[in-house]
Inverse folding.
């Protein structure tokens, strides 16, 4: 993704090698979880997420299947903009839970498009500094916990 | 270490790369690094080091305090923000600034800090900030940070407001990143690796403020055999990697109203030289002003991703000591 947004050199922290994990419930695989780290020097409120898209092996995951887990709170993508008291720390990845039927074992090409606004960097009315937190990486599906 | 009334400290912000990238690097490890550097006072930036912000949990605060106590370290200053853009679609109003200032003051007290590097505070709220600073016994410092310069009208307006209010609870935290006179060596390394000629890079640096436009500088570089690598450097030097003559006269005007300093730096070489920031002149002005207080070393070379914070801080503290003790810096 080419943008003029601020992009720090911590991109390898966004999708770490063990970030993709299968979810298996009582009757079998249902989906996966993906842990996403911030490519920024400090944490940010979840409400600053302006754009989020997830692809696995080139296929876009439908927005309504994205459930964000933060401190045991489950939030749909559409609620993130209001989640201004939920703070995404640089030490604690944000987990996305996706129940799309499960992924095959092995490697998967995962892509996250993530744009956040910098809540302290006001450039003018309605205009804020923007951060590009996007990353893509080949991840090996970890076994269900 | 205290040299002539000036005490060196370290901002934990300098350890940001390892903090973000290494899940096993804890606050205790970070404070071990501070201890190893031989300083006592440190600054902690809340939004970097806490899992909850703007109000961290009691457990998080207790953990920092206990780790500092065990190492004989002193939480000197707390780095706050005004995250007034946290509510989507909402234009910030006074209560947003007041909330964040109050939250950060409360946290500073809990940490045992008597100084807050506050986020933005609108001029008309400075009297309230002075009152809260008095009540909480925490001084409120407004950072003067690049791309701002001390002589900028808004900074001078704030200075006039400090003088008008007359409270010693308010003041500046000048950040030495305002005084970058040339790009740091690790920044140049990127262009050199892309095939740039060092002589031409120096030509660009020398002529950045000669009155020539970006296109005119490139035309001159091309005449001398330069190409795309130099063009990339020119574009950056006229853009986000901006630098220029240090505003030392403006700096002098801030000194009577300075709480403490962010001694920002990017790279000190093995010979303890840093041509990026005129540290000797800045420290000379501080000493001449009669300032007594804290000089907080703040490494920001993690922008170059070299994983060298501890060694860089060690060198920077030595360089400062050498200058403050009357030796040669630059």
């Amino acid at each position: 993704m080419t943008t003029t947004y601020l992009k720090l050199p911590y991109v390898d922290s966004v999708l770490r090698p063990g970030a993709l994990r299968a979810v298996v419930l009582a009757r079998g695989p249902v989906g996966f979880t993906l842990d996403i780290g911030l490519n920024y020097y400090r944490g940010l409120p979840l409400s600053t997420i302006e754009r989020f898209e997830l692809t696995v092996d080139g296929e876009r995951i439908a927005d309504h299947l994205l459930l964000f887990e933060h401190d045991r709170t489950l939030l749909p993508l559409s609620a993130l903009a209001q989640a201004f008291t939920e703070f995404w720390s640089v030490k604690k990845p944000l987990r996305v839970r996706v129940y799309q039927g499960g992924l095959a074992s092995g490697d998967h090409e995962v892509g996250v498009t993530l744009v956040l606004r910098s809540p302290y960097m006001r450039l003018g009315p309605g205009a804020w500094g923007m951060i590009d937190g996007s990353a893509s990486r080949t991840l090996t599906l970890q076994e269900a916990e | 270490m205290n040299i002539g009334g000036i005490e060196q400290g370290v901002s934990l912000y300098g350890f940001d790369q390892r903090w973000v990238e290494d899940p096993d690097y804890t606050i205790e490890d970070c404070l071990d690094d501070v201890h190893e550097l031989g300083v006592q006072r440190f600054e902690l930036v809340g939004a970097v080091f806490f899992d909850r912000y703007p109000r961290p949990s009691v457990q998080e605060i207790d953990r920092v305090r206990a780790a500092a106590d065990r190492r004989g370290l002193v939480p000197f200053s707390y780095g706050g923000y005004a995250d007034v853009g946290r509510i989507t679609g909402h234009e910030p109003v006074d209560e947003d600034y007041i909330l964040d200032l109050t939250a950060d003051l409360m946290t500073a007290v809990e940490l045992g800090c008597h100084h807050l590097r506050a986020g933005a505070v609108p001029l008309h709220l400075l009297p309230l900030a002075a009152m809260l600073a008095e009540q909480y016994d925490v001084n409120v410092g407004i950072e003067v940070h690049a791309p701002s310069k001390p002589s900028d009208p808004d900074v001078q307006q704030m200075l006039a407001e400090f003088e008008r209010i007359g409270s010693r609870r308010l003041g500046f935290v000048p950040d030495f990143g305002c005084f970058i006179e040339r790009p740091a060596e690790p920044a140049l390394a990127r262009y050199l690796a892309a095939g740039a000629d060092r002589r031409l890079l120096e030509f660009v640096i020398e002529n950045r403020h000669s009155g020539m436009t970006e296109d005119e500088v490139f035309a001159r570089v091309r005449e001398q055999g330069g190409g795309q690598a130099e063009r990339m450097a020119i574009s950056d030097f006229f853009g986000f990697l901006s630098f220029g003559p240090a505003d030392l006269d403006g700096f002098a005007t801030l000194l009577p109203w300075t709480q403490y300093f962010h001694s920002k730096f990017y790279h000190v070489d093995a010979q303890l030289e840093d041509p990026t920031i005129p540290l000797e002149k800045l420290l000379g002005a501080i000493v001449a002003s009669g300032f007594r207080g804290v000089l907080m070393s703040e490494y920001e070379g993690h922008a170059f991703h070299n994983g060298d914070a501890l060694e860089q801080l060690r060198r920077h503290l030595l360089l400062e000591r050498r200058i403050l003790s009357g030796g040669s810096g630059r």
Chain B is about 45% helix and 15% strand. The first helix of chain B runs from residue 16 to 21.
